[in-house]
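Morning F.,

Quick status update on the modeling queue. The single chain you submitted on Monday has been processed. Sequence for confirmation:
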Amino acid sequence: MNIRKYRTGDLSRIKNPLEPIPRDYPEQEPPESDFSYTLVDNQGNPLIVGGLIPQENGVHKIWIRIDQTVKTLMLVKLLMGILLVIREEFGSPLTLEANVLCYYPAGIRFAEWFGFRETGVKEENGFEFRTYQLCLN
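Structure tokens below.
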């Protein structure tokens, strides 16, 4: 496995996402960011794609898509390492923001397990999302 910079098309190359993408969800590439990466397997197939999109006031929106084949322990280790890199890169304090589709139970559990706090619910493109924030000091 290898981590590399995100490339256009990596998002759509994850064929078995952990949570199914709604058919009518407007699939689009994430905005360009210097902080988006892809974990690929030995054949170059994306397993995890994600990154940070800087917003205003020191907030960074986090996005991620995970293939079903990724083992939980590997994912947790990888994301803990990423949090350390984020802290080093951006310093403290730093606020991460995440939007999780309301009917994605694994995404909700994961956000809450990782320490994100629910801040509300919003609608975007006809879909309802739970909004979360994590403040890193």
